[in-house]
Amino acid sequence: METQKLIPIQLICNRYNVPVSFINTLQEFQLVEIIVENEDYYIHTKQIKEVEKMIRLHYDLEINLEGVDAIYNLLKQVKSLKQEITMLHNRLRLYEDL
Amino acid sequence: MAYIDYYSILGIPKTASESDIKKAYRKLARKYHPDLNPNDKVSEKKFKEINEANEVLSHKENRKKYDEYGEHWQNAEAYEKAKQQQGAYQQNYKGASGGYSEEDFSDFFGNMFGGRASGSGGRQVKFRGQDFNAELQLDLKDVYEAHKRTLTVNNKNIRITIPAGIENGQTIKIKGHGGAGVNGGPNGDLFIQFSVVNNTKFKRDKDNLYVTVDLDLYKAMLGGELMVDTFKGKVKLNIKPETENGTQVKLKGKGFPKYKKEDQFGDLYITYQIKIPTNLSEKEKTLIEELQKLR
């Protein structure tokens, strides 16, 4: 994995002013993946957007981590269902004019 | 300039305590937060209203002014006072889904309290800017080949390449072309959802195309050649003798381009629909009757 794509957890925590334990808890809930390289802890840049979202849900809306976990998984399901609906709409068009 | 009843927006009485306001705000913010309602314009608008109401009512001084002047806020004295206090207002909500522009807030709010200042106090957080969503309508013919388009998003022209084979409902991400970051955070992204309108006789399923063509009865019985339209020009097909109605043939590689796979195409499926001759002459009828007797 390219090192440039990894961000040290400490840096994220400093920037967003959240304790490292928050990121560790997210990992316990399997909401983020922590990568260990040379005894340093990182997360991948592609996860930043999701981490930001979880910070907002937890700190701005005061949703506990169990709630964040439930919301995160439900949103994933909603996204996947929306994609399926679009795909089915596209397929339905095949038969509409027959 | 419209008077906005912030109390009714939060669903609380004018006598509500600070904790009632906070509770009502939290409840509604959880319901309408953009993170929980992605791509939902109604929720986004509602969330902005809730934020605006909360920002006024949760701030002691602002709430007092709001309670005092109410709908008569246009009173010159109050306006002057408000003007003097421009900049004093501090935003207490920090960038749920990026920076909202001043236009997102009511004129009332802007004039009374001097607009929004950048966030301060509490967590000093750098947030990515808001992701923008746009919809672009294209004809099926447009997406047969990759092409460039210039879009205007927030008064900025963006030139994008639309890859061939994009699907109806598909979304592409243009990195960094969303809203500006908050407190020096990176810009959000622009998500463009494509609405592909099919005005052609071809039906599309992913990268395969389907079309029904008419085949005259004699060619179906005796075989022959038939020119058919594909998405890119005509091709000559050999019709086998005794071809039945509804027979489907596949033209490999004559379908739609595969998304982001250069020079790869799906297939074109052609269904024959046999046309029975009408307005038969007496001679034709006699000949067909003779044919019938032979069977």
What does this structure look like?
The complex is a heterodimer of chains A (98) and B (295). Chain A contains four helices and three strands; from the N terminus they run βααββαα. Chain A has helices at residues 9-16, 20-28, 48-60, 65-96; strands at residues 6-8, 35-37, 40-44. In chain A, strands 1-3-2 form a three-stranded antiparallel sheet. The longest helix of chain A has 32 residues, at 65-96. The radius of gyration of chain A is 18 Å and the shape is elongated. The termini of chain A are far apart. Chain B is an alpha+beta fold. Chain B folds into three domains: 6-113, DnaJ domain (Helix Hairpins), CATH 1.10.287.110; 132-197, HSP40/DNAj peptide-binding domain, CATH 2.60.260.20; 203-277, Urease metallochaperone UreE, N-terminal domain (HSP40/DNAj peptide-binding domain, Sandwich). In chain B, helix 2 runs antiparallel to helix 3 (41-57). Classes of the chains: A mainly alpha (98), B alpha+beta (295). Chain A binds chain B through residues 15-18, 48-49, 52-53, 55-57, 59-63, 71, 75, 79, 83, 86-87, 89-91, 93-94, 97, and chain B through 26, 29-30, 33, 35-36, 38, 93-94, 96-97, 123-128, 167-169, 198, 203-206, 210.
How many separate domains make up the residues of chain B? 3
> What series of H and E elements makes up the topology of chain B?
HHHHHHEEEEEEEHEEEEH
The CATH topology of the largest domain in chain B turns out to be: Helix Hairpins
Helix amount of chain B: 25-40%
Mean pLDDT of chain B: 81
Mean pLDDT of chain A: 88
Helix fraction bin of chain A: 55-70%
Protein name (chain A): MerR-like DNA binding protein
Organism (chain A): Mariniflexile fucanivorans
Pfam family, one (chain A): MerR_2
Protein name (chain B): Curved DNA-binding protein
